[in-house]
């Protein structure tokens, strides 16, 4: 039986530096930060007052049934918008495809936190009789994946993976597996998040995980820099159309690239800290390269997970060296979290979109705010300015609390 291959034919992104895919890509190439003092709530008494907040976003154009907007948490609205963007860009006509072969895999790290907080407040202040009948369906993690399938009438497998900040990578990777196994021909796959809420900000602040560079929001997220002091929260969604190659060729679809490899591992080490040697991250990268039949000297670009935390960025640097050997010093690496912050469950799919766009346009977005590199971070992180470069093979790394690791590899589709 001929091997089933998977390609990317559509991209949809809602991000702090662009509420659609084109704006997001231009902002990323220009090194434009979307991090600012947030307005979601009054942060006077909070230690962290900055985030990658999505502004100017209107969900109305992306819903078939506008009544559902009020029943949708913000993370669901982001997912719906990114899905419709990806679908429209792919050129797919839903009436011309088998909807029972069109699947959805949209995960989230935390889910409807805003709705959960609102419901808890209502319950305490007014009692159980005043709680909305939509409270549960707004906060449950799988609500975004269900909403997209419902609005588009998609009846293929419907998956919601929750693996903290590795969610986006897992969502895309498991969709890839499903298509390769023959259980679907098409997927809307990715992640979404909206956790710039009192509990979200206070919770990560209590962990001492967030940057406190409140006076300089645009300079706060600084992966690999000596003066980094924690990550910056972000919100948004990234959804990709994954398509079986023959299906895409039969309809003469535009093809960004081939999704050729996926590695997932676990550290089995600590709830919040990565393994200091990076061994299991390196293993995930090697698995993705083995699937894709790619050698270390063929990798051109890595979109790093690097969140701007003191421990994490060093551990990932060590992992890249373990995975690529001497080629680690040659490959271009960047962390686009420097511009949009850490979108938690949406990070992996948005950053995989960057990899696909880098292959298409021959441009590698920069790591901004990299002024003085940490001595232990000694690789090529494309500092501050985008780089024109032919990209044939790219890897996106994503890691989550609990030791979840993913590496997703994409490569040029050569027409064969």
Task: Please tag this protein with its features.
single chain, 416 residues, alpha/beta, two-stranded antiparallel sheet, 13 helices, 14 strands, 18% strand
List the helices and strands and how they pair.
Layout: E1 6-14, H1 21-29, E2 36-37, E3 50-51, H2 67-70, H3 74-90, E4 102-107, H4 113-126, H5 135-139, H6 143-152, E5 158-159, H7 167-180, E6 186-193, H8 198-206, E7 236-244, H9 245-250, E8 257-266, H10 279-292, E9 301-303, H11 310-324, E10 332-334, H12 337-340, H13 347-361, E11 363-364, E12 387-388, E13 393-400, E14 404-411
Parallel strand pairs: 4-5, 4-6, 9-10, 9-13
Antiparallel strand pairs: 1-7, 1-8, 2-3, 6-7, 8-14, 11-12, 13-14
Task: Describe the overall structure.
This protein is α/β, with parallel strands linked by helices. The chain contains 13 helices and 14 strands. The chain has helices at 21-29, 67-70, 74-90, 113-126, 135-139, 143-152, 167-180, 198-206, 245-250, 279-292, 310-324, 337-340, 347-361; strands at residues 6-14, 36-37, 50-51, 102-107, 158-159, 186-193, 236-244, 257-266, 301-303, 332-334, 363-364, 387-388, 393-400, 404-411. The strands form three sheets. A ten-stranded mixed β-sheet has the order 5-4-6-7-1-8-14-13-9-10, sandwiched between helices. A two-stranded antiparallel ribbon has the order 2-3. Strand 9, helix 11 and strand 10 (332-334) form a beta-alpha-beta unit. The longest helix has 17 residues, at 74-90. The chain is globular, with a radius of gyration of 20 Å. The two termini are 17 Å apart. The model has no long low-confidence stretch (mean pLDDT 97).
């Amino acid at each position: 039986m001929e091997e089933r291959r998977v390609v990317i034919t559509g991209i949809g992104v809602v991000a702090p530096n662009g509420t659609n895919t084109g704006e997001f890509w231009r902002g990323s190439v220009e090194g434009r930060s979307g991090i600012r003092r947030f307005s979601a709530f009054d942060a006077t008494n909070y230690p962290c007052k900055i985030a990658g907040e999505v502004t100017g976003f209107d969900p109305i154009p992306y819903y078939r049934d506008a009544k559902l907007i009020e029943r949708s948490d913000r993370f669901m609205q982001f997912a719906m918008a990114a899905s419709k963007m990806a679908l429209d860009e792919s050129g797919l006509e839903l009436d011309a495809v088998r909807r029972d072969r069109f699947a959805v895999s949209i995960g989230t790290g935390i889910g409807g936190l805003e709705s959960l907080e609102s419901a808890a407040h209502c319950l305490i202040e007014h009692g159980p009789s005043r709680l909305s009948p939509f409270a549960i369906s707004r906060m449950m993690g799988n609500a975004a994946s269900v909403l997209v399938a419902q609005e588009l009438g998609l009846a293929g497998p419907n998956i919601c993976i929750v693996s903290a900040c590795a969610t986006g990578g897992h969502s895309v990777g498991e969709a890839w597996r499903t298509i390769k196994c023959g259980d679907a021909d098409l997927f809307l796959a990715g992640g979404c998040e909206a956790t710039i809420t009192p509990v979200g900000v206070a919770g990560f602040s209590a962990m001492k995980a967030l940057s406190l560079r409140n006076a300089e929001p645009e300079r706060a997220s600084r992966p690999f820099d000596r003066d980094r002091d924690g990550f910056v929260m972000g919100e948004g969604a990234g959804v990709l159309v994954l398509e079986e190659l023959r299906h895409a060729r039969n309809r003469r679809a535009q093809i960004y690239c081939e999704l050729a490899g996926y590695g997932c591992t676990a550290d089995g080490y600590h709830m919040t800290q990565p393994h200091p040697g990076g061994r299991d991250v390196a293993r995930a990268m090697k698995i993705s390269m083995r699937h894709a039949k790619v050698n270390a000297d063929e990798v051109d670009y890595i979109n790093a997970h690097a969140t701007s935390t003191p421990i994490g960025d060093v551990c990932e640097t060590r992992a890249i060296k373990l995975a690529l050997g001497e080629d680690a010093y040659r490959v271009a690496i960047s962390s686009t979290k420097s511009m949009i912050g850490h979108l938690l469950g949406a990070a992996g799919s948005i950053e995989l979109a960057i990899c696909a766009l880098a292959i298409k346009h021959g441009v590698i977005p920069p790591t901004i705010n990299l002024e003085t590199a940490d001595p232990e971070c000694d690789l090529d992180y494309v500092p501050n300015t985008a780089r024109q470069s032919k990209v044939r093979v790219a890897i996106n790394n994503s890691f989550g609390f609990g030791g979840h690791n993913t590496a997703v590899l994409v490569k040029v589709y050569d027409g064969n």
